[in-house]
Amino acid sequence: MTLAPAPADWLLEKSQQIPRGVALTGEQTLSYEELESQTSRLAAGLTTQGVRHGQIVAVQLESAEQLARLFYGTLYLGATLLPLDPALERGRRDRLLATVGAHCLIARSPSSATGVAWIDPATPLVKAGDGVAACTPRPLAGDGIQLIIATSGTTGEPKGVQLSAANLAASVVSSGQRLELHGDDCWLACLPLFHIGGLSILLRCLAAGARVQLEEGFDPERIWRQIVQGGVTHISLVPAMLDRLLRQSAGQTPPATLRVVLIGGGPLSTTLAQWAHDAGWPLCVSYGLSETASQFATDCSPRAGLVAGRVGLPLTGYEVAIGAAGRIRVRGPAVMRGYANVAGVLGQGLTQGWFETGDLGRLDEQGRLTVIGRVDDLLVSGGKNVHPAEVEERLMQCPGVVEVGVAGRPDPVWGVILVALFNGEVTVEQLTRWSQQLPGHLRPRQFIRTGKLPRNRMGKLNRPALLALLDQ
Fold this sequence. Notes:
Blueprint: H1 7-17, E1 22-25, E2 30-31, H2 32-48, E3 56-60, H3 64-77, E4 80-83, H4 90-100, E5 104-107, E6 117-119, H5 124-127, E7 145-150, E8 160-164, H6 165-179, E9 186-189, H7 196-208, E10 211-214, H8 220-228, E11 234-237, H9 239-249, E12 260-263, H10 270-278, E13 283-289, E14 294-299, E15 310-314, E16 319-322, E17 327-331, E18 338-339, E19 355-363, E20 369-374, E21 379-381, E22 384-386, H11 388-395, E23 401-411, E24 415-424, H12 428-434, E25 446-449, H13 463-471
Parallel strand pairs: 1-10, 3-4, 3-5, 5-6, 9-10, 9-11, 11-12, 12-13, 24-25
Antiparallel strand pairs: 1-2, 7-8, 8-18, 13-14, 14-15, 15-20, 16-17, 17-19, 19-20, 21-22, 23-24
């Protein structure tokens, strides 16, 4: 795939090459010609609100459609978008805005950060661009920062990951080579657009001239109905979403039109993967981060997800290595320009172009990457390193377990003992007996049956909240 250097150019090209091709469906249907026209007027509307080329526009909105349109608008205007989780607490939000140097905030309430202008999202010019003349596009240069993604910040202040237009283009090219997205395809987007996994869908479809089916949140009944209708060829899910869709489908095989079910955002259990394979779902298990502009390793083989933690070969353009401490390291043209900082210095968080993740991993002889788990989650029990994800993966194989989370409880003899919090039809006694087959250092010493486990909006297990639940 050969692309123009700036994502804004892709919209202009597609509006000329396939003007009547469907670009976006959701609350309304837009062709590429209509999307370009509305985006041009929206960009002009933003200009009337004081937004200029090269400025950073923060957006904190619930509406996926509104955020998508503002993303296209900032591409067109040559501004940098900072999409924010609507649930991000105001104080942490405002500190992030000050750190990245945001010029304005489009949200329901203003920011207390110095120098950040507020734009009401109900302003008609911002909402639709109605009655405003079109403007001339001013795409950012390849090295211009097109997007800043806020890391989740579950244990500290969120960081701003700076991604250039060239980073985003490189990611789209690499992804397209592995996933084969075509102009007549449709990618259903139900991931939050303030995450790189959600916004990447918009970019991939824009580059390929494909259609985005944009969803406001995740409704398994509605999404399964759309899959059954046969129009969806690609869908991105986190494991918890896959689980709910499998339950919704009640064993029914999806139509052959569905070619790619891209799984990311957290570890996929082999039990869930086997269930999906048995039901005929075409899984592609991926691994990526905001810092790598989304996926950089993906396994679309017939056994994808059936080996715990294996995420396949790196995509074209990415170099992957394992550091001395066992951490996964990656570099390539899609790796971020660095974390945003008050001084505006590029390269923060990188060492000679390498980004060292917070995940432990290993590479096999064929170059396939296996993700073991987060470094910060590692427990030491009886002098042995134990990763909760490995124990959870094994316990999920016990019949009747629906969810399980493993935490460490301080112990004067062992350092920590493993405690498993779980739910499902299995009893504490049954799970205790079943676990006797596990190696001693991977066997929890206590099992607690509980309700639904705490997860973040991407479906990842919230380990700090799990520890708090254990304390209760």
